[in-house]
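for the recovery benchmark. C-alpha cells below, seq after
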C-alpha cells in the first residue's frame, strides 16, 4: 500500500490528538498541561506555565527554607548545638565541617548536603526536607552509601569507617504521623536484642509530630524551624542563638545578593529540567505514534515515509 501525501499529515494529527488527550508526567513536568503552583508546595518557588518566581522574600524565610537552613548551619557552633540537642550528648571536638558535595565516582549521581559534620570520631549528615518525599527511607540509604564510598580511598580497610548518622528534618508528618523523632538501626529479625553494629543510624525528625516524645528544648526548636519568629523570646539557649543568626542573615544586605544568586541558579535548573522534560516528551510522543501505527498493521517503511522517522529508529520501539 502506498500512502498519498494528502493523508500523511491528517493521520499524524489525528494520532497526536488521541495520544495527547491524557497528559503524561515526564521528569516532574506534566506534558500537555499547565503545571500548577500547588504541585511545587514546599519548594519555596511557584512554577506555573512559563513563570518561575520566589514565593518568599529573604525577610520572610524560615529555618525550614533551603537557603536559610544552609546559611544558618554554616555556623560550626550552631551545628554542634543541633547535634547535641538531637542526641542529648556533648560534642567535644569537631574534625571536619560542611563538605557539601559528595560523589563517589565520575558517572555516579552526586549528593549535595545541607550539613556535614565530623565530631568525636562520628559523622553527621543533616538534610532539611520541605516537600513530602515518599522515597525518604531509600534516600537515606543512598546518602549513607555515597558517604561511605567517598570516605574510603582505594586500599583503605573498611574498619576506617566512622559511626555514621543520616538525619532528615521534615516539615510534614512521617511514618505513623505520631512521633516527632524516629531512630533506625539494623537489628536481627530473629533476635531483636541483637544489633548488627554496622556503625550506621538513620534518624527522621518531624515538626508535625503529636506525641509526648520530646523535651521542651526540642519542641521549641521544631516550632522555630517553621516559624523562625525573630520577635519571640526563646527559652532555650540554642533557639536564642538560632534566632540571632536568622536576624543577622535577614538584615545583611550581602545576603540579599546571595539569595538572588541562589534564585537564579534555581531558575537555571528549572529551565534545564523543563528542556529535558520537553525532549523526553517529544521522544515518548513519537514512540506512541509509531506504536499506534504498528497496531494498524502499517509497515515500518510506510511509517518512515509518513513520519520522516528513520526505519532504524522505528525498529527500536
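predicted aa per position
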Amino acid at each position: 500500500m502506498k500512502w498519498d501525501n494528502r493523508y500523511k499529515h491528517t493521520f499524524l494529527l489525528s494520532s497526536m490528538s488521541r495520544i495527547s488527550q491524557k497528559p503524561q508526567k515526564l521528569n516532574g513536568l506534566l506534558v500537555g498541561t499547565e503545571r500548577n503552583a500547588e504541585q511545587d508546595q514546599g519548594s519555596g518557588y511557584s512554577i506555573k506555565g512559563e513563570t518561575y518566581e520566589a514565593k518568599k522574600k529573604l525577610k520572610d524565610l524560615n529555618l525550614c527554607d533551603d537557603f536559610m537552613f544552609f546559611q544558618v548551619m554554616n555556623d560550626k557552633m550552631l551545628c554542634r548545638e543541633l547535634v547535641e540537642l538531637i542526641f542529648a550528648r556533648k560534642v567535644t571536638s569537631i574534625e571536619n565541617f560542611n563538605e557539601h558535595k559528595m560523589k563517589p565516582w565520575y558517572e555516579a549521581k552526586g549528593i549535595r548536603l545541607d550539613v556535614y559534620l565530623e565530631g568525636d570520631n562520628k559523622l553527621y549528615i543533616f538534610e532539611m526536607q520541605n516537600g513530602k518525599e515518599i522515597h525518604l527511607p531509600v534516600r537515606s540509604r543512598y546518602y549513607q552509601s555515597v558517604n561511605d564510598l567517598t570516605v574510603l580511598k582505594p586500599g583503605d580497610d573498611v574498619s576506617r569507617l566512622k559511626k555514621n548518622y543520616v538525619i532528615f528534618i521534615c516539615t510534614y508528618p512521617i511514618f505513623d504521623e505520631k512521633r516527632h523523632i524516629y531512630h533506625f538501626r539494623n537489628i536481627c529479625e530473629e533476635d531483636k536484642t541483637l544489633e548488627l553494629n554496622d556503625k550506621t543510624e538513620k534518624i527522621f525528625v518531624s515538626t508535625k509530630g503529636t506525641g509526648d516524645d520530646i523535651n521542651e528544648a526540642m519542641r521549641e526548636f521544631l516550632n522555630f524551624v517553621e516559624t523562625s519568629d525573630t520577635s519571640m523570646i526563646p527559652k532555650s539557649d540554642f533557639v536564642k542563638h538560632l534566632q540571632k543568626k536568622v536576624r543577622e542573615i535577614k538584615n545583611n544586605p550581602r545576603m540579599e545578593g546571595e539569595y538572588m544568586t541562589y534564585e537564579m541558579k534555581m531558575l537555571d535548573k528549572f529551565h534545564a529540567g523543563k528542556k529535558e522534560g520537553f525532549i523526553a516528551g517529544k521522544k515518548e510522543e513519537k514512540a506512541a505514534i509509531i506504536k499506534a501505527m504498528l497496531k494498524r498493521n502499517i509497515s515500518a517503511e510506510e511509517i518512515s515515509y509518513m513520519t520522516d522517522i528513520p526505519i532504524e529508529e522505528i525498529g527500536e520501539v
